[in-house]
Every structure is written in structure tokens, then in C-alpha cells.
Write a structure and sequence with these properties.
alpha/beta; Rossmann fold; 2 domains; 6-stranded mixed beta sheet
Amino acid sequence: MTTLTKQTLSHLDWLESEAIYILREVAGQCSNPVLLFSGGKDSLCILRLAEKAFRPGRFPFPLMHIDTGHNYQEVVDFRDQRAAELGERLIVRSVEDSMKRGTVVLKSPDESRNKHQSVTLLEAIEEFGFDCCIGGARRDEEKARAKERIMSFRDEFGQWDPKNQRPELWNLYNARSHKGENIRAFPISNWTEMDVWQYIEREKLALPSIYFAHQRDVVMRNGSIFPVNVPLAGTETINLPKADEEIINMRVRFRTVGDITCTAPVESDADTVEKIVLETATTTITERGATRLDDQTSDASMEQRKKEGYF
């Protein structure tokens, strides 16, 4: 007599299976996709999912990072290292190049370059003819992201219309587009920050060091912890403190990584993935609400940027 063993999938297994399916749908429906890879935790998860979806073959798309020129050096170094380990092509396009072309003009030298990534991204899409950009956005990050479909359509101007989106009934995804149009695909759209950290723990993924607790010079500015005197490649230092601000050396970590001028750390002693999972389980503030200063300018700031072509 044969005994059948019932296998129960964990919630991470279900999320992983859905994400792999979405990646394969992109590869099957799109002629020239690209995976947006910053070196951050979400895009590192997508890299692992892509390995499971397409190995032992090469990825059916290159990797691309839109660099503001003000990214944490630890993350940039890790980005290059991970792409080299995978043996995949990495394309880097910089907001600074757009500034040189005159397509990006800052209001002041210390203005955050984060929102200007939209311009550089659209220029890169046109340069390479990409018809789909795979991103690591999650619906729990911010209310505007929660409005977006897994296959998010952008018109020939790179614009997103939250009131005109394609239905996705029964997990049927439509990634078709005309020349000049673009799809943004979000394989981990249904994941939460906790899911990401649990997946990182399960898969034993390496991460940039700034995700873990470390000592850093900071000031308190507008209720947030603001990193100061941050070195860039070379001799330049940015985020200088104001004359009346007291510099504090605090033990912090970053919940998300982005442009130095608008990404704040949180006070933390979590120096392992296991401790970060426990810390994430008890937090009451969303990841972007606690750390992304550019999202706090207004309730609609992210939605407006997405309409203009942001990730």
C-alpha cells in the first residue's frame, strides 16, 4: 500500500512561485526587458528569484541601475560585486550625465537628485529600446505603490495613469505594448518588508553592510535621524551639518537605501538578519515613512513622481 505525503507550502513558497511566474511572463511577452538593480534588499531578492527562474542559462535581460551620483559607496560596491558574481551585464546610467546634457537642472546644488532619476530612466529606456523594466516595488511601501498593477503600463511619454490600468483577473498579466510604450513589472508587489527579510534569511542572501547596525555620525533634523559628513567616491563629502546642529555618534541601520540626501537611518542594535526580522515584526512605522525624507513632502509626492516616469 502506497502512503501519500501531503506537502504544505509556506507563504514564502507561494510568494516565490508567483514572482518566478511573473518573471517568466515578462521574458515570454516582452522583446527587450531590463531588471532594475540598485544593490538594495528588494532587488537582491529579485536577483535570487531570477536565478531560480532562468538558471542554468543566462538571464534573458541585463541589469540596470540609475545612479544619482549620491549613492552610498558601500551599496555601489556591493552592486558591482554581485553583478560580477552572477556574470550578468550591468548597465549604469547616472543623473549626473543628464545634468551635463541639460535635461536635469537642479534648483540648488544641495537639492535631492532622487526625483530626477525619472528623467535618466526614461533616457535610458529610449537609448536601449527597453519595453519592460522589472522593479522591486512593493505595495506596502507607500500608498501610491498600492494603486499600481503588477504589470504597470506607461505611455509613450513614460507617464503612469492610476485611473487607466489593465485588469489582472485570475493572475493573467498583459505586458503587451506598442513601440515607445513601456511596462513596469513588479514581481514582489504582493510581498511585505517582513516577507523580504524572511526570504533573505531563508536564502542566506548577502547584503550591503549599511543594512546592519553600525556607528554613524548623525543629527536630528525635522524629527528624523539625518546622516552627516557622508563620503562619496574620491574626496567629496556631502550632507554637511548646519551650524546650529549637534553631531551625535549613534548606532543605526538603514531599512532602505537610496540617495544619501533623502535616505534616513533608524536607531537600531540589529546587526544580524535574525535580529532585523524580529525588529521588523514590532515596528509600527512603514519603511518609507521612517526613512525616505522625499516621500514626506506631501501625501501625493510619490504618486506625482510615478506619473512623471519614476520607478
